[in-house]
Amino acid sequence: MALPLICLSTLSLRAQAVIEYSDEQRETMVEMIDQLEQRHYAKHHYDDAMSSAHLDSYIDSLDGAKMFLTAADLGEFEKYRTVMDDELHEGNLEAGFVIFNRFQQRLEERLDRVVTTLPEAVAAMDFSVDENYELETDELGWASSQAELDERWRKRLKNQVLSLKLADKAEDEIAPTLNKRYASQLKRVRQYNNQDVFQIYANALTELYDPHTNYLSPRRSENFNINMSLSLEGIGAVLQVEDENTKVARLVPAGPADKQGELKPSDLIVGVGQGEKGDIEDVVGWRLDEVVDLIRGPKDSIVRLEVIPAKSKGTDQHKIITIVRNEVKLEEQSAQKKILEIPDGDRTIKVGVIDIPAFYIDFDAMRRGDKEYKSTTRDVKKLLAELQEEGVEGIVIDLRNNGGGSLQEANELTGLFIEYGPTVQIRHSSRRVWRDGKRLKTTYYDGPLAVLINRLSASASEIFAGAIQDYQRGLIVGDRSFGKGTVQTLVPLTEGQLKITESKFYRISGDSTQHRGVVPDIAFPSLYDPEEIGESSLDHALNWDQINPVRHQRYNDLSTIVPRVTSQFELRSSGNPDFIYLQDQLDLAQQTRLIKEIPLNEKVRIALRESQEEKALVIENKRRKALGEELLTELEDEPLDEEDPDALALEEEEDTEEVPDVLLTEAGNILVDALLVKDRAYAVTAAPTEEK
Predict the structure, then answer these.
(1) Mean pLDDT across the stretch 129-148?
(2) Per-residue pLDDT tens for 1-34?
(3) Which of the two ends of the chain, N or C, has the fewest CB atoms closer than 10 A to its terminal CB?
(4) Bridge-partner residues for 280, per DSSP?
């Protein structure tokens, strides 16, 4: 029997709103805390201090925008601040369920009121008044009264109405759209059950240990297993919740969304439509699993996403993206090759490129004894041989957007470029250190090498890039990597599973890849905001640290090469129109991210949007002028008519055109620069005799 919720009456809850916890959930919580204290890498004990943090984390996960609960509510919850640890060790979930029931009551009351009064509220809105809507709520205090909450909601709804209006929504459709949105949220709120509450309460605790430690309810466990098997038919995107919105965390390499090319990390998905002409369903305020279910669908079917691009903050720009659902196939994630031709005076130097979207291995085929089973290392080995036969003088390994995969393959791949030696250290929560790497001296590629990374290069990618850097085997170029340097294990519980961080990765230099990531030898402009993307952007991420290094050889003295090559890169990029364009776009995006509030005056809001668009047009025309191309009078990236299939087809056709990859080309240039640095044999056999 669950403990009786005696104090519910003191919180004036309606009887029908009460959600109670089960005996199974009591047992699950006790098991989970025991696993966290015993097995998590951080070795945190769930004490009074963590109880206090758990309370704050839980309330934030329920009402992070501070739109439902009041300061008076928070005052009542203070009695739980330092006692939740004692209660949860005993399986007493009272605090979590009492707080949730109060929150649900406030949520229902507010949404019911919004739905009831919305048409009149919209009709009364005056968009000529000078006032602003706060985008950042972190510094916002709890409302002292319902009247203060009413004012916050007035501005919130006014902003939503204005956003829809400026996104060309018909005025007579705005109120019904929002009414449907909030009626749908209200319906879902009334369907909350004890599994929902337990999951939120549990994860508010687990995420204090680190962001990759999570409680998976029975439903989430099922979805997790589906995702891990790559059998899911969908768009190939990892999604997360941000306030009321569904945010794109990353794209699966070679997945449908990745190949389509328009959806980007940090974009917000606000609507989902089925087929070419199905109605776009508003998904603002939906649960993440419900949004995922809506996006999933049969292979070859069409899903349309209404998206607010990450770069369009405060501009009210919405975009419809059409994606054909499909499975992410292993063969489509396979390593691929190409050749860059880099001019050098009166000759051309061939540089081979091997693009590795993920670290993969077909374990089933390997166990069956299939001699042709696919793996990253086997495929790259073949590509290396082919590229050398084609006369390349150096190799670029492209790991951009590679989110990791098989650690075994990261180690094996490193072995193709070093003679022998360790590649990674793994430190367990017991503080025992395990090392792995190439154990036998065998043939390896000893020519010039560069590794191209970006902010989305994570986990196994960081192991490989870090090892290449530590051995000074090649140059690392690009952006600082993700910084995901932890290892998780799944632990079964009475109900659901616990995904727990048990170990950390360390480089052979002793540096962790956690949090800091791999810092490139030569840095390119960052395409991703480090405050939005990467381990350092996540709350409670484990810190960077060091352990003892491992003795290892160094193949080159890159300290003599990097300054010269960096200088050449800076000189070349400063006059490259594509690089200048990239930097200008990044500067504009940074300016946009600094916007903390947006006007609710329609004319001022339009002026803001036009100003942003004008800045973007100036940047585009600056590039076009430098390249000798025709200037534009307006940006061509206008919202498409979703009812016009010809327009959609035309855009898809245009998107398939080959677009020069300025970052990849520059990686090739840098490798050639390193190859030709005077009096420095960058590789054992491949360096030409000419000097640049």
Answers:
(1) 91
(2) 333 333 333 344 444 459 999 999 999 999 999 9
(3) N
(4) 273
- Do 45 and 123 meet the contact criterion of CB atoms below 8 Å apart? no
pLDDT digits (tens, 9 = 90+) for 465-481: 999 999 999 999 999 99
Q: Judge whether 178 and 118 are in contact, CB under 8 Å.
A: yes
User: What whole-number distance in Å separates Cα of residue 467 and Cα of residue 457?
Assistant: 14
Question: How many CA atoms does the CB half-sphere of 92 hold within 13 Å?
Answer: 14
Yes or no: say if 546 and 511 are a contact pair by the CB < 8 Å rule: yes
CA distance 149 to 143: 6
- Structure-block tokens of residue 10: 């003191």
pLDDT higher for 154 or 316? 154
Q: Which of 375, 459, 481, 573 is catalytic?
A: 459
Note if 459 is an active site residue.
yes
**Superfamily of the domain at 330-561+665-675:** 2-enoyl-CoA Hydratase; Chain A, domain 1 (3.90.226.10)
And the tokens for 479?
A: 């952006």
Reply yes or no on whether 158 is catalytic. no
Structure confidence at residue 344 (pLDDT): 85
Tokens encoding 379: 């495929």
pLDDT at 638 over 50: no
**Amino acid in the structure at residue 440:** L
Contact 235, 301 (CB under 8 A): no
The strand pairing partners of 354, in sequence order, are: 337, 397
8 closest CA partner among 104, 82, 84, 86? 104
125 φ/ψ sector (left φ>0, alpha ψ -120 to 50, else beta): beta
Specify whether the CB–CB gap between 455 and 529 falls below 8 A: no
Cα atoms in the Cβ-side hemisphere of radius 13 Å centred on 359: 23
Q: Is 180 a catalytic residue?
A: no
Q: Where are the domains of the chain?
A: 6-209, 231-324, 330-561+665-675
Catalytic residue among 282, 470, 511, 521: 470
Alpha helices in 167-193 (DSSP H): 171-189
Q: How far, in Å, are 56, 142, 309, 523 from residue 75 at the CA level?
A: 12, 10, 39, 49
* Statement: 231-324 belongs to CATH 2.30.42.10: yes
pLDDT given for residue 689 in this prediction: 36
Of residues 484, 499, 504, 529, which has the active-site annotation?
484
C-alpha distance from residue 220 to each of 27, 226, 327 (Å):
19, 10, 20
Looking at the DSSP assignment, which residues form a beta bridge with residue 323? 303
277, pLDDT greater than 70: yes
Residues 6+ apart with CB under 8 A from 287: 188
